[in-house]
Structure formats: C-alpha cells, structure tokens
Write a structure and sequence with these properties.
This protein is α/β, with parallel strands linked by helices. The chain has helices at about 10-25, 45-50, 65-70, 130-140, 155-165, 185-195, 245-250, 285-300, 380-385; strands at about 5, 30, 70-75, 80-85, 90, 95-100, 100-105, 110, 125, 145-150, 170, 200-205, 210-215, 215-220, 225-230, 230-235, 240, 255-260, 270, 275-280, 315-320, 325-330, 340-345, 350-360, 365-375. The strands form seven sheets. It has a five-stranded parallel beta sheet. The longest helix has 16 residues, at about 285-300.
Length: about 400
C-alpha cells in the first residue's frame, strides 16, 4: 500500500488528496499543516473581515470529509521542519518523523514584506490566513484609521472590507494607477473613482518611507514627506513561495520549487504544486493554477507520468461590493503591435468600462484578453472564448454589446 504525504492543507493540498483518493482507493494519505483550521477559502477572507461572510461559511471541507468520506488523515497544527530525502521521511516540529513513498509539497506562499523602516511595530500586519484576519477584526473594533500599503487586488479588497467597518482607510500605491497588471489606464481611473466615492483615500505614485510610532504604529510617512495617521498598517505587496523547507534539502528552487510538466521536482517521488511551484519560469499565486496543478501532481503520484500540466490563461476577479471586475489574459500593451486590435465600451455614468484585445492571425481573429469592469454580462463566455482561442472574426462587434448572448458562439 502506497503512503502519500502532503505538506499543506490549502486548496492545492486538499484537492491533491481528493484526486489521489479517486485514483487509489486503498493508499494511505496523510496531510500535515501548520494551520489550526480545516481547509478554508482564502478568497473569502476579505468578506469575512467586512462582516459579510460568517466564520462557518469559510470552510471548504468539514471533518467528516477527511475522516469518513475520504479516509484522509489530517494533522492540524503540525509544522514540517525538515525533509530527509535519503530516508524518505519528513520531520515535524515535535521531533516526530513520518515516512513517505510519495511526497507532495503544497505548502503555499507567505505575504512579502519589503524592507520599510518601522515595519516591526505593533499593529503592522499582513493578511494571508484566518488567524491574521481574526487579529485584524479584533483590532479594527477599537481604531479609527488604517493604511493599506499596496493597491493590488488583495490590497483593494482588504481596504474595501475595512471601509465597511471604519471610515478612514487609505491605500498607498507605488504605481501611477491601481491594479497595473489587471487594468489599463482608463479602467484603473474608473475603479479609483468608485473607491474614492466609497470614502477610500488613494495615494498613487507614492511609497512609504517610514512607519511611524513608538511601540505601536501611529502613522506612515511617504517619500513625499506627507504623513498619514494610521493605528494599523496592512502591508499588501505581493506573496513569495515558502521555499525554505525545500531549499534546506536541495530541492531545486528559483522563486518557487522548480517543477516539470508532471509536477515532479528534481528528486524522484517528490512533487510540488500550487503557490509554491514554479513552472516554465512562472509562479502564479492564484487558485485556478493551484487547482489544475494539484490534479496533475496527484494523478502522476499514483500513476507515474500519466498526464502533463498545460498552462491555463490566468483570470482575476475583484470581490468588492458594488463593482465587478474580471480581468483575463493580456490586457495592456505599452505599444500596441500591428496585429493587435483593442475594442472598448465605456459608460462612466453607470461605472462601466469594458475592453477586449484581439489578435489577428492569418485567417482568424482570436481574443487574447479582456477587462470587464462594472458589468459581468457574458463574463464566463468571454473567458471561454479566450481560453479556447476560438475564432471571433464573425461577431467581433457584438462581443461588448450589453444585450448579446454569446452562448450561441461557443
Ligand atoms: C486574502 C486572500 C484573497 C485571495 N483571493 C484570491 C482570489 O480571489 N482568486 C484567486 O485565484 N486567488 C486568491 N488568493 C490566492 C489564493 O488563496 C492562493 O493562490 C491559494 O491559496 C494557493 O493555494 P495553495 O494550496 O497552493 O497554498 P496555500 O493556500 O498557501 O496553502 C499552503 C498551506 O501550507 C501551510 N504550510 C506552509 N509551510 C508549512 C510547513 N512547513 N509545514 C506545514 N504546513 C505548512 C500553510 O500554512 C498553508 O496552510 C487570495 C489569497 C489571499 C490571502
């Protein structure tokens, strides 16, 4: 009987365990996680902070699923501190060693904290886990102003969640617009207006020189010398894979653990997937990739090299109330190449901005990117057109119309 050991109980770990069980009904599956909770949906944390999502609705799996339904042994609050590759075992913080036949590293990423003076002060935090979110919820009950450093998707979602509980929230963004990777200039400016109308202060082209205060934070000073009061500072400047464990035992790493198309590392029987993994030079840090990679890793752990991972088109959704944003594929060019055409639909009064990016090939036109801000109509259909690289030349002009049903073209 094969013993499968998985490090990490996020979406990649739990989905891998589920897939292994479908492929091998008898094998022994054990998951080790340093967190204290069953698998929960990190994307729901901003809604939980806002008070819109209840604690019990965060969880993806209950105990019954692990124990009874799938016969998976889950070990919560058990940090893995070493992997002894020659002996084929992992070592836990409590000194216990656990043998494996096949090992999956699905131990995710952590929030990156850039070297900002004062970032070690009390009430300076990052939001990655349920524990972080609980801490923030207790803190914001007793304070009046918060600064979020970083105007990416997560920074905006967190700022907007806090803004539902307290009024004075500011976002500090280094770039000249919000969401530089997901929005073009026009879209970013509309989103900025919507957020400002909600009362969120936005500082663009700005970076924090120092986090101020004695033991506790009481503000930030920008490079421009402007000071903004803050009783809590949230740093939201990206994530980094948790590669320390892998590096310690010579598993090849660059930004993440380097994997091939089978999700194999450089050691036999050791696989990696999800936020921790780097495939084709890229680390994604998003759920669809974690989900797809974990399935491939799990199938190959059971049936050696049965399937290959194929890269998926990334899509991002902003989950804040009263504005929908989906951004998918390639959406912005500094200089538009000759074979690329952009089509826009803009309705600022109704806070709508949509754009599609079309690549003209020899005998067809395919969608390679889209921004859908303020209107979700046909969002799934447009994502399918992009993912399946379908020829849109016969209906290009219909794609952004409000009343078109694109289903007929799929
Ligand atoms: C607030 C928030 C909102 C997000 N929203 C979205 C969204 O809307 N859409 C989207 O696509 N993505 C979103 N993401 C990103 C998404 O959550 C990640 O891509 C996803 O969680 C990756 O899953 P994973 O299983 O690879 O890693 P993780 O979820 O990071 O899970 C890894 C687990 O391993 C544990 N671990 C680490 N080291 C060890 C160790 N040594 N021993 C034992 N356990 C260990 C970690 O504590 C963690 O529980 C969001 C992330 C956050 C934080």
């Amino acid at each position: 009987m094969t013993k499968y050991v998985i490090i990490g109980n996020g979406i990649a770990g739990v989905n891998a365990a589920n897939t292994i069980r479908s492929e091998d009904t008898k094998g022994n599956i054990e998951i080790y996680t340093d967190e204290d909770y069953l698998t929960y949906a990190r994307p729901k944390l901003p809604g939980y902070i806002a008070g819109i999502i209840k604690f019990q609705d965060l969880f993806i799996r209950d105990e019954h699923y692990y124990n009874k339904e799938k016969n998976i042994q889950l070990h919560l609050s058990n940090k893995v501190i070493d992997i002894h590759i020659d002996e084929q075992n992992i070592e836990l913080e409590n000194g216990q060693k656990v043998k494996f036949d096949k090992l999956l590293l699905a131990n995710g990423s952590h929030s990156f904290v850039p070297p900002i003076k004062g970032s070690d002060k009390k009430n300076v935090m990052t939001i990655r886990s349920l524990n972080d979110s609980n801490q923030l919820i207790s803190l914001i009950k007793n304070i009046d102003n918060v600064v979020v450093i970083g105007g990416g998707l997560l920074g905006i979602e967190i700022a907007s969640s806090i803004n539902r509980r307290i009024e004075n929230v500011s976002i500090i963004e280094f770039f000249s617009r919000l969401l530089p990777r997901q929005l073009d200039i026009e879209g970013a400016s509309l989103l900025q207006k919507v957020l400002e109308q909600k009362g969120i202060n936005i500082f663009l082209n700005s970076s924090v020189e120092e986090i101020l205060g004695n033991e506790k934070v009481n503000g930030v000073r920008l490079k421009s010398n402007e000071e903004i009061p803050a009783q809590c500072v949230i740093i939201s400047t990206g994530v980094r894979p948790n590669i320390n464990l892998a590096q310690k035992c010579n598993i090849n790493c660059n930004r993440g653990i380097i994997v091939n198309e089978y999700m194999e590392t450089n050691f036999p029987n050791i696989y990696a997937c999800g936020d921790i993994a780097e495939f084709n030079g890229r680390v994604w840090g998003i759920i669809p990739v974690a989900f797809a990679q974990s399935k491939v890793a799990a199938i190959n752990m059971v049936n050696d090299r049965k399937i290959k991972y194929e890269e998926i088109v990334p899509s991002n959704t902003l989950k804040i109330t009263d504005i929908d944003l989906t951004s998918i594929g390639k959406i912005h060019f500094e200089k538009i190449p000759n074979n690329i055409v952009e089509k826009r639909m803009s309705d600022p009064k109704n806070k709508i901005y949509k754009k599609i990016v079309i690549e003209n090939q020899d005998d067809k036109s395919i969608l390679i990117g889209a921004i859908l801000l303020g209107d979700k109509t046909n969002s799934m259909e447009i994502q399918t057109l992009i993912k399946q690289k379908l020829n849109v030349s016969n209906f290009i002009d219909e794609i952004l119309l409000p009343n078109t049903d694109l289903k007929k073209y799929l």
